[in-house]
Amino acid sequence: MKKLLTLLLLGLSCVAFAQNKRTITGKVTGDNDEPFVGVFVTEQGTNNGAPTDIDGNYSITVRNGATLVFTFIGYKTQTFAVGESSVINVNMEQDVSNLEEVVVIGYGTSKRSSLTGSLSQVSSSSFENQKVTRVDQALQGRASGVQVSNTVGAPGGDVRIRIRGANSILGDNSPLFVVDGFVGVDFSSINPEDIASIEVLKDASSTAIYGSRGANGVVLITTKAGSKNGKINVTYDGSVTVSNIIKKYDLLSAGQYAEAYNAHSEAFGLNPQFTQDEIDEYYENGGYDYVDAVLRTAISHQHQLSISGGTTQTQWRISGNYLNQEGIVKESSYDRFNVRANLNTNVNDRLSFRFNINTSTSNGYNNSGYSGASTVLNQAIAWAPTTDPYNEDGTYVTNDPVGSLKANPLALIYDAESIAEKTFITMLGGLNYKIMDGFSIDLQAASDQQFLKDKSWSGTYASRGTPSAGLTDSKARTIQTTSQISYDKTFGNHSINAVAAVETQSYTYSSHQSTSTGLVFPSLKYDNLSQATSKETASDYSMWTLLSYIARVNYSYADKYLASVSIRRDGSSKFSDDNKFSTFPAAAVAWNLGKEEFMKNVTVISNLKIRASWGFTGSQAISPYATKYLFDGTTYPFSMGTSTSGIIAGDPANTDLKWETTEQKDIGFDIGLFDGRISLEADYYVKDTKDLLLDKNVPAYLGGSSITSNIGKMRNNGFDFTLTGKIIEKKDISLESSVNFSILKNKVVDLGGNETVYVSTNLTGINDGAYDLIYRVGQPLGTLFGLKYLGPWQADEADLAAEYGCVPGDARYEDRDGNKIYDSSDYQIIGYAMPKYTLGWNTSFNWKNFSFNMFLQGVFGTDKLNYNRCINMMASRDVRGARFTEILERYIPGVQEDTYLPSWSTTSKWYPVSSLWLEDASFLRMKNLSVAYDFSVPDLADFTVSLNATNLFTITKYKGIDPEASNVGSDSDVTQGLDYGAYPNSRSFTIGLNVKF
Amino acid sequence: MKKILLHVTALICVVTILSACSDFLKEESRGQVNESVLSTQEGLESALTGAYRGLNSPWSYGICNGTYQQLCSGGDDIYCPTTDANGTQLDRCGVTDSNGSFGSTWNGLYKVVLGANKVINNYENCSGDAATIGVMAGEAYFLRAYAYFILVRLWGEIPLVTTSGYTEEGITMSTASEADVYTLIEDDINKAVEMLGDSRRNGEIGRPDKIVAKALMAEIYLTEAGWPLKKDGYYAKAAAAAKEVLDGSAAQGLSLVKNCSDLYINMEEKDNITTEDLFVIPASTTDYVVFYGAWSEPGEIGGWNILFSEVGFYQNFPDGPRKDATFYTVTDTGLSWENWADKHPSIRKLMKYPQGGKNNVSNCSSVLPAHMLRLSQTALTYAEAKARSDGPDAMAYLWLNKIRTRAGLTEYSGLSTQDFIDKVVQERAWELAGECVRWYDLLRLEMVPESFENKNSEYDPSNLHSSTDSRYTFPLPASETLLNPNL
């Protein structure tokens, strides 16, 4: 009986089961009605679900009366009640609003409307027609508060990127680049075509999550992923660029040169160098044009191919890029190969894996070493046009008998090499697992390896008799792990997003260097270093590690009231045990005023948000081992021709070094008017840096060099504005213009009891140990320091001039202490290098298939010491003949007395570090002008043809050829404002083609 | 739920492991050399080599970069053209604190001092062969005396540093009086004489031995006897020290070179060391000497027109083989100095390949030794010091006449003491022309103003020195006084 009953019950339940459940099938389609793979189809309120297959088909067994939910990230979620039909076909629609509004923030993402901090987004579409070759060009002028200066025009050359100015004196003020979560990437290894979007984090509440590395702002780059629609996309993009020097130097002709040379000799009581017959002949036949001989019209090209595809389950994208850039100085070039592969796969609706690899190998040929006297361009100017560069046997003349003291510029081009080969390999793997509703963990490990090989060679003529070559191999490896747990949940009006993470980074560097001097076979260069009279070898190792704990909570109430709190604790190996760790908190609040009921009636305003934030960021901008007293290697020859190695004290150490921290406060608002047609983002910020790391010069009697110290405080404050107007917005025609404007004020507040700290660059080699820059309390970075030029002594001031041992026409400087000697007591502030205002103005106009883009860049309120003018007109030291035509305007007693330039005389000292050479270097430059035309060939491809002009014109009072160029690399802000033969930017024209198959 | 807990636990474990792993933040200083090496003989030896380095780092610091000759151009032997603002300041004695030629010498000599201090302050606690370590310390004392001796003569009151390197107190220190500096110098040179061996260590010409230290001692005493200290009894001390050197010279293989023309052959194929060399700074392909070659040659043969001879000095110089070996006046093409752009003869001693041959690839990296102290200088020091202390003796005449004979000049005899002294001082100027000796002689004998009368006013510019300032020592470099206003 029992058995029977059991069977009956079993049977009943089977019937019941059959009655309550049913199987639904269907097909999900996406864009263009193509099958959509990987859409999750779930029964609402249960864990029951299934993904669509490759054909977009699904099958799911559900209860009667259930509701099916179709979800896919980036697409609108759709729900369907199960009715009579057992087939439900669905077409997924992209959730455009959502897509656009999600922005990447550090260790997570956020809806744009939920942002509390200050962030600028640059999407790939905004630069795709500009044929940019590097990330900095994509950033330039497209984000407020970001200043990009092409300080070096060499191919692959340095660029200075600043976000809200410079905080640090010692440290690199370049922003932190984070690519797909990997912290601290060399941006030159990134192919801009691989970029999906760039987010620039500016205020402390956004950057504090990067703690000790966030003080200079953070640039987050997200690379493109494959598509989800099952379609294969193939894109080719190529361009050819023709470049020329931006402006010609205004040089004396050979005849003028010879005449001026004699005039100089006469003024100094020397015998004339040239006879009248020679001068006449130079006027008639001209001389040798070295500048023309070393410059060229450079042709560069770039090719890029990407293939991507995927389904909702797995997406992939592979791209290759080849860039070949020629420099306008002959024999200078840069080429780069890039390959990137990105792969994402969703194993199921909870677990996903990602893997990215980027390799980049580049070859810079004679594109560095652009500073100092012995550069090709400086020597091309310095060498006398009256000197023939070749001997009768065709070899290079090694000594210029009248002009330069340095090597022949043609020998520097053809008889010398400097090659930098770089290979970067960045690999990144990660997994994301959704533990339960709202909770997910994310683990990522990445490595970045850099292999660098530097080769240098100086042949018989370039080295003038002592040919030498060198080879340096180095390897740097950074390993990063990030373990992160996130919580993201909305309860009614409350929305919480929280993240906690632990991150480690370890860096190791090793190098080996060999140098040979006195090569027996100079033509074998660096490929056979053993054949030389003297060989030196060196090796080096350094490392640092960083351990970080990170936490952040973002909260919003009804999307109206937003708050964010974060904290990061960083420990660095660079500091001694007591100072290893530092904590960087941050907080921000924002009020989406536009979403309040009472604003609903104000129809003019479509969006209004007020933001305020505060936070600490830091800098560990010291080199490893700065806390340890160490020796450097050296040599001494105790017998002729021998070499004994020894040690000499290195830079003084400071065992008490600690973190430099920056406290930043920011208030700002975003306002959108007329349905977003006009929008304005405005921010005011104050950044206070304390425990400022500073390399303090040590007097030579204590060993010289400098000691790194935490002394002082600095303040940066300023305004950033971005005003965007969608002036015309029609189907076939649109015009959008965006202006970003930044005002920045930088001030040294305290120098730990010192009034002034001095910096010597001796860029020209003739500064005579004078300090050309200072840090002084109350003054900004880049304060230029020297003698103040008062014009030439006038004829009626002869008596006073005589007290200075001068005669009328001699350079007169301000004698501040009245001791009748121009000495260090007369030095004073003569100018300010740091720009006060920067402007970027981007306008795009689209008409049918045409699109035009114009980008103007302006930098205002900046001074430069133009050492070029000094060294090429003083007719002394390294350049013994005047080269610039401006010299014709000098004071000539009795002939030309109302002048700016002093006379040549034995008693007239032309001080390099004086306001005699100071100029206003403000400029407005047409950075980019482009036009593109789109067309489609059915069943073949979509085409875009574009034409681009870079640096078309510049409005400036600066007398040098390029106010944007500067002699310092990208990291330092201290020594900006000096110009001595920097590699100038070029004016270039690019024609481009983009094909999408 | 269990699964979740498992994951969370795993994550917490990872976090804990990482944070517990305190070694992660340990700084590894592989490959770095730190202070502890100074307690070993090898380390001390390396530091001593580093101290020598201060004498010459090409184009960077030391006294072989050509600027040292400029600093000594206030004398009537060396001329710097008016076209070079730094050189002409020095040549005409109107030197300001920002003169650009200071750096190399000032910085280099202080590197010698600091390097020597490291050895001096550590050798007593150093393990190894005590005898060798003692000689090493002797070399360090010699170097420190040598460096301060140049510094105090050029700049007068200077910071006197005896610590091994940077100290916070050092940043605000004030200068020491010349008397205090000489006290240290005397101390050091006495220790050097005491501790150095009878022959150069390892047989290396670049190192001093006892006799070299004694020769330097003679120069120091001679200077202390004159301006500014004018110490009593020091001429006698100088004469005694110099006498020991001259008496011991033959035993050490030291003697005057027979022909003047063999003193400065300056051909890189040879080692250019002579039997007259007491203290030299040797050179190699990488640690070359800058002042030979382009630096000191006229533009007419590819030189840089930086150093010449005063015309007055050249014209007053007595004819003979020494004059021929001292000056370069006509180029291979027959162009004589009056027709060169700078209208001054060059100093042949400072040229490379002065006998011609390789001048077509002129350069400034010469593998030629810098001769810092020669036996003939010590001989003349003896003659002068002896004469000044108790009149010239036969030995003083002997050495003076040896030098004059070699120069192709007549021998002196029977001069009054004052005459003898004047002749010796003049002989020093000629014999050691261009070797950075004359300027110091003019200073110690307070002869700078009168030396300007030896110049040929048609070619050699006048004195620019402020008439209210009797000191001819230089102001301390602005680069130092700006960093330390207490100087």
Structure in words:
The complex is a heterodimer of chains A (997) and B (487). With 997 residues, chain A is mainly beta. Among the domains of chain A are: 21-94, Immunoglobulin-like (Sandwich); 99-223, Ferric Hydroxamate Uptake Protein, Chain A, domain 1 (Beta Complex). Chain A contains eleven helices and 52 strands. Chain A has a 22-stranded antiparallel beta barrel. In chain A, strands 10-15-16-13-14 form a five-stranded mixed β-sheet. A four-stranded antiparallel β-sheet of chain A has the order 3-2-5-6, with no helix packed on it. The longest helix of chain A is centred in the N-terminal third of the chain and has 19 residues, at 2-20. Residues 4-19 and 96-100 of chain A have low confidence and may be disordered. Chain B has 487 residues and is mainly alpha-helical. In chain B, 44% of the residues lie in helices and 5% in strands. Chain B has 17 helices and nine strands. Chain B has helices spanning 2-20, 41-53, 67-71, 85-91, 102-122, 130-155, 178-195, 210-225, 234-249, 311-316, 321-326, 375-390, 394-406, 417-431, 438-444, 448-451, 478-481, and strands at 33-34, 56-57, 61-62, 78-79, 277-281, 308-309, 327-328, 346-347, 370-374. Chain B starts with a helix and ends in a 6-residue tail after the last helix. The interface between A and B is large, with 101 and 112 residues.
Give a count of the beta strands of chain B, DSSP E runs of length 2 or more: 9
- What Rg of chain A is obtained from the alpha carbons, in whole angstroms? 33 Å
How does CATH name the architecture of the domain at 99-223 in chain A?
Beta Complex
CATH topology of the domain at 99-223 in chain A: Ferric Hydroxamate Uptake Protein, Chain A, domain 1
Largest interface: A-B, 101 and 112 residues
Radius of gyration of chain B: 26 Å
Helix content range of chain A: under 10%
Number of helices of chain B: 17
The level-1 CATH class of the domain at 99-223 in chain A = Mainly Beta
DSSP E strands of chain A, number: 52
Kindly report the oligomeric state of this protein. Answer: heterodimer
